[in-house]
Amino acid sequence: MTRAPLLEIAVQDPGGARIAFAEGADRIELCQALEVGGLTPSVGIVQRVIEATGEAGRVAPLVRPRPGGFVYDPDEVEVVAADIRYLSSLGVGAVVIGCLTVDGRVDAATLARWRDAAGPTPIVFHRAIDAAADPLAALDALVAAGVTRILTSGGAPRTIDGLDVLRTVVTRADGAVEIMAGGGVRPEDIAPLRRAGVDAVHLSARGRSEDASPSGPGGGARGYDVTDPDVVRAAAEAVRSRAVS
């Protein structure tokens, strides 16, 4: 029988964090703006999530200053470093980052800058690896840099379509770094991801709020994303099922 992977849920607010832990998540990635892939959460959100859950060590904030690609200018590098230092001071379980060079390699200099800013706080490298020119070379560079875990879809828009690459990545990592599968994951995808040997599974478990109040000309569409407890529960059941062999 394959061992059960850890379950990580991406959430955007204290309510989502409470739901994720109540329904069986092992940890959360905390961010804002999941609709653009996630951005750095505000100071207030991070503080309130930690206060509301008492689980700083199971919270991994994303530190991404803007949407778009993962090549950062010097100002952006320093913004991320400042955010990392602050988040690390709160005792979070990890910080989630990603950086590439213009030719698609891991930006080793920027990664080292952020590693120094994190101090003892573990570093997670997000799906920037899926945009790397050579993901396996990127994996080797991240292991050498002391990254704790890597989030990847196997280079596919949805993780379930990147299974062959994920298997190769798991074999190449050989336990030197945690491989976490994420990107469009649904609970029904978890069994084949377990068979691929990943160490953890990541999903956002998003639903839509029933808020029908008018948002006005400057507020965008009505409603907003929320964490769906049914999806989290189904994912937790899938990662812990004894039926996978």
Automatic annotation (TrEMBL):
Pfam families referenced in this protein's UniProt entry, alphabetically: CutC (PF03932)
UniProt family annotation: Belongs to the CutC family.
Chain segments carrying region Disordered: 202-228
Descriptive protein name: PF03932 family protein CutC
InterPro entries cross-referenced by the UniProt entry: CutC-like, CutC-like_dom_sf
Subcellular location: Cytoplasm
Source organism of this protein record: Microbacterium horticulturae
Stored SUPFAM superfamilies: CutC-like
Signal sequence annotation: none
Keywords of the record: Cytoplasm
Tagged with keyword Cytoplasm: yes
